[in-house]
Amino acid sequence: MYYPRLRDLREDNDLKQKEIAAVLGIDQRVYSNYETGKREIPTRFVVALADYYNTSTDYILGRTNIITPFPPSAAASR
């Protein structure tokens, strides 16, 4: 599945694929495959990128156009 916001967020923050791959602890070629939709990005990386970019996983996945993250729930803070 292709998620164009992966590339948009990276470019909006003036980052290279190699830099984001380092944040995730993976090879740049693997990250490139996620950006182009050649490989499906694992949930743990979507969550890590949402935290890194201070947005929501729903924004990255294209389920909302609201870039700001959701407030943490009470259950998540326990």
What would your notes on this structure say?
The chain has 78 residues and is mainly alpha-helical. The protein has a single domain, classed as lambda repressor-like DNA-binding domains (434 Repressor (Amino-terminal Domain)), CATH 1.10.260.40. Helices cover 53% and strands 0% of the residues. The chain contains five helices and no strands. It starts with a helix and ends in an 18-residue tail after the last helix.
Short overview:
The protein has 78 residues and is an all-alpha fold.
Low-confidence region ranges: none
Could you state the order of secondary-structure elements as H and E?
A: HHHHH
Largest sheet: none
Number of strands: 0
Mean pLDDT: 93
How many structural domains are formed by the residues?
1
Query: What's the Cα radius of gyration?
Result: 13 Å
CATH topology group:
434 Repressor (Amino-terminal Domain)
How far do the termini sit from each other?
33 Å
Helix/strand structural class: mainly alpha
Shape: globular
Give the CATH superfamily: lambda repressor-like DNA-binding domains
Tell me the β content.
under 5%
Number of helices: 5
Helical content band: 40-55%
